[in-house]
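Record type: monomer structure entry
Structure origin: computed from sequence
Chain ID: A
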Amino acid sequence: MLRVALSLYLLLLSGLSLAQYTPKKIENNDLRGKKEILSIQFLENKTHFQFLIVQSEMGQFHLEQTEDKKLQKSVKMDTESAQKIDDQFVDKFITMKYMMEKKFEKKCIETYTLFMRGEDLKVCKADTSRMSMVGEIIKLFKANLI
């Protein structure tokens, strides 16, 4: 009788110790993850806008427009169109960042911020040549969002 009671007591203790166990957090590597390829952020009338191209884990490309960090529009793109936009964006980004003469101002009123593969570029309002190049990129994004 004592052995049965002791066995039940040990069984109860082992059950309680298992109840306290919390499993490790499971990684969620599902296919809905996105990788940002390139983007442009800007402030207009106190509203933050962003155009970006993202790639899903399955290799699909999407052109997205956000307003105050809320998705406004998303268009699925074929690889060829995404590559065309990427090529033009990269060309203009590298030209603006490394090949154009830098204009040093004490007060730079930042208008646009461009992001590309871990690098960023801030474009000042007074820098008209860079502003016109960014305008071309935005027109390209808007044309593909239709």
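Annotation 1: The helical segments are 2-19, 79-99, 128-145.
Annotation 2: The CA atoms of residues 59 and 79 lie 9 Å apart.
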